[in-house]
Amino acid sequence: MASNSKTLRSPLQIARGLGSAKHGTEHWWHQRVTAIALVPLTIWFVFGVIRHLGADHAAFVAWLQSPFSALMMVLTAVVTFHHAQAGLQVVIEDYVHNEMAKILSILAVKALCFVLGAACVIAVLKISFGA
Amino acid sequence: MANGSGRPLSPHLQVYKLPRTALLSITHRITGVGLAVGTLLLTWWLVAAATSPAAYERAQHFIGSFFGLLLMFGWSLALYYHLCNGIRHLVWDAGKAFELSEADRGNQIVIGAAAVLTVLTWVIGLAVW
Questions:
Q1: Does residue B78 fall inside a structural domain?
Q2: pLDDT digit string, tens, across residues A37-88
Q3: Nearest residue in A to B64, CA atom
Q4: How many angstroms separate the Cα of B119 from the Cα of each of A64, A96, B12?
Q5: Hey, of A32, A34, A43, A49, which one would you mutate to test binding to chain B, going by the most B CBs within 10 A of its CB?
Q6: What is the pTM of this model?
Q7: Is residue B14 in some structural domain?
Q8: Mind listing the domains of chain A with CATH numbers?
Q9: Among A78, A69, A3, residue whose Cα is nearest residue A33
Q10: For burial by CB atoms within 10 Å, which of A52, A104, B82, B87 has the most?
């Protein structure tokens, strides 16, 4: 089983020819794509919040019952939580060195982000379709 | 500070004065985590509005309280900082502005823009409130 001494790749890796799992930059790329998407979404969100400071329930509901506002709020929530879980994962990977604690905290953070994101989407849809 | 291997050591963080670029870099991360925590309030706000007028009033009351406004101020500053510095990271990702002089200018632009946007938002916000 003499492998080529000039390479660090195992014989199996060479046979399969896959290199990385072809997802080496995917996480990084997703973080960038969501970051770019969040620029206009964040600006929309800040304006929306300012316009509804101190708004009563009826005014707030009327805002999110507009299809455009509902669309933007759903996108803001989904992309924000996608970006958040990607970023938090990297932070945990950098600072938590115990393998078990690392995996468990990443799973917990991702679960929480999915739950909160889904809750936001359902809330917006409920308002949008007439709460 | 020999570690036996003769290889250079990482900066000893307790006695090492962080360059401003490093300070802004760690601040990006800290604001990111802070903003992630802030999504809890966003979720509460939206879910409360979908639940009932009374639940919505409770959320609005909290946001309008002193502590709520303090949190909102912190989050607005963190949001603008993370937004501005994030755009700068995208510029770096494009392979531009890596020279020290450019990085120094970037530091000033990011801090200045985040401060101006935060103040502007609160001036407008408090005016229309």
A1: yes
A2: 999 999 999 999 999 888 899 999 999 999 999 999 999 999 999 999 999 9
A3: A54
A4: 27, 36, 36
A5: A49
A6: 0.86
A7: no
A8: 26-128 (1.20.1300.10)
A9: A78
A10: B82
